[in-house]
Amino acid sequence: MSLLxxxxxxxxxxxxxxxxxxxxxxxxxIAPGEVLGVVGESGxxxxxTGAAIIGLLEPPGRIAGGQILLEGRRIDNLRYxxxxxxxxxxxxxxxxxxxxxxNPLYTVGRQLVETITTHLPLNPAQARARAIEWxxxxxxxxxxxxxxxxxxxxxxxxxxxxxxxxxxxxxxKLIVADEPTTALDVSIQAQVIALLKGLARDQGTAMMLVTHxxxxxxxxxxxxxxxxxxxxxxIGPVREVVKQARxxxxxxxxxxxxxxxxxxxxxxxxxxxxxxxSAIPQGCAYNPRxxxxxxxxxxxxxxxxxxxxxxxxxxxxxPGAPA
Amino acid sequence: MSDTPTAASPTPPxxxxxxxxxxxxxxxxRPALQRLLSREGRRTLRAVDGISFAIPKGTTLxxxxxxxxxxxxxxxxxxxxxxPTRGEIRxxxxxxxxxxxDPAQRSRMQMIFQDPYASLNPRWRVADIIAEPLRAFKLxxxxxxxxxxxxxxxxxxxxxxxxxxxxxxxxxxxxxxxxxIARALSSNPEFLVCDEPTSALxxxxxxxxxxxxKDLQARLGLTFLFISHNLAVVRQVSDRIGVxxxxxxxxxxxxxxxxxxxxxxxxxxxxxxxxxLDMTGRSRIPVGGExxxxxxxxxxxxxxxxxxxANDRCRQERPELRPSLGAEVACHAVEExxxxxx
Lengths: 323, 342
What we know:
The structure holds 2 protein chains of 2 kinds.
Chain A: E1 4-15, E2 18-30, E3 35-39, H1 46-53, E4 62-70, E5 73-74, H2 80-89, E6 91-94, H3 98-101, H4 108-119, H5 124-137, H6 143-146, H7 156-168, E7 174-178, H8 186-203, E8 206-210, H9 214-220, E9 223-228, E10 231-237, H10 238-243, H11 248-255, H12 295-299, E11 305-307, E12 310-312
Parallel strand pairs in A: 3-8, 3-9, 6-7, 7-8
Antiparallel strand pairs in A: 1-2, 1-4, 4-5, 9-10, 10-12, 11-12
Helix pairs in contact in A: 4-5, 5-7, 7-8
Chain B: E1 15-27, H1 32-37, E2 44-56, E3 60-64, H2 71-78, E4 86-91, E5 94-95, H3 96-100, H4 103-106, E6 109-112, H5 126-136, H6 143-156, H7 173-185, E7 191-195, H8 203-220, E8 223-228, H9 231-237, E9 240-245, E10 248-254, H10 255-260, H11 265-273, H12 312-316, E11 322-324, E12 327-329, H13 332-336
Parallel strand pairs in B: 3-8, 3-9, 6-7, 7-8
Antiparallel strand pairs in B: 1-2, 1-4, 4-5, 9-10, 10-12, 11-12
Helix pairs in contact in B: 5-6, 5-7, 6-7, 7-8
């Protein structure tokens, strides 16, 4: 059974000028121990999906349809207090900016101990010992001394390690990591990715890894979902999506990454930009930018259909498509 | 300061920009009373500490490095937003101070900033934003000529002349960066300083902007100083690359040389740290530790606490840039042949 399942999730933002659909018919599942990468351009709905799962959609955003199931149990309709117990214990969250995640007025030890005693049956002394253990596991030197330091006393990379410890210390089954390495320098980024991957594997924790960095996905994820304008454009095994994407958008996204190993005269760019939520074109949302667009794309919106080893929301893979 | 700039290669005759032993320190001391009470001395942040380079006309020099290495400070020094603490900047053969005091010279250099959301005035129409340098340098006479020139500039960066009447919020990040480029081009500059021009953009849009910049360089013969933390981006645009670490250039080489034979342990670590898309499954050995504080830099070579090749000499003596296999490298291990190039 999958650990997390999203069924036709729809998130809306009611505004004065009408309702914006931020997520439209998003379905996927994550198995225990699996890492699902979620990629796409800014505004595609990656972070929104993560926020919906952990129950922290910013008002007026709301789940307008579909279901979120954790171990077969619906969590999208829980009351605030019930969801609060699940967050932390069942689902850990890691955000992009470690400085805003941590409370600057409390020592990191206090924040860890609070999380541990809230979710695990341990007394404060045991919780403190556990907290030191976690700081050591995420690679903070002299953890027993540093535990009484405040967040500002740590560097950016060390702070993100503290955040990871905080997300993992209640031993959740699922981690939602939203751009966990984006604020970090490349040399630190590599350390943090290696750490996250190792810990998730050792604990058997499933992870939803939201990032715009395809390199991070290629190294870490088992499967990838490519999002575009609030929908999943393609989802499949990481190797297939990175090496041989079926959806023209995923293929364009991959091709536009500047290569490290050679210089090219002209980079492959996707012309234009992603439509705003208030102006999503009829048919396939990618049709104005798509090099392989044909008549059907202009009128009918494609759902995910099998396209070889991946699923792609693209009419090219439906019967009767032009070759 | 004991260091002398190492002008290893003779300066090409037609350098658009040249710096010699350029340095910029910032005073980050606490207020005087607090200093007195806690008996602290002054604290100096050495953002840039002795950098020499030359950019031949029509070429691109990139400075790469992690946050805090001083690359953006160099960009700001070069256009005169900061004054140097030490050293010299020459723009097309004259000192930067002289060039900056002459509007005709000043209009020959422009800057493109990282954040296209912060660098455009939200209350101005695009036409006014782009025409500001035209007005400041009195380059066109009359509204009609101005409107015509703005239209040309917008077309040049791939937008429509009709966009002139819109406000910045009506554009996406990539389009805004095109507007920034149009504004920079409006005074017909020859030298552009680009400080992370694509790092706020999505990857598909980044490719558009990089293509545009390369295209403009080919058509207009522009000279670029390009600041970036992204090695893959830098490889696409540069003729020459300087790798910076804690305020100094640790390796400088022609772009292809740097990527095919990186020599400095830090350059190699940086390249190693980038997750690769090829999924060869190779396990990367990430460089340990973090960038030290530029307020209290390590003794000797600033990279020694993180360097696998560090020895006593590295801890005591600061290496200078020396020629090595077609590049310039500031590393004792490379100089002594202790660094094994794989």
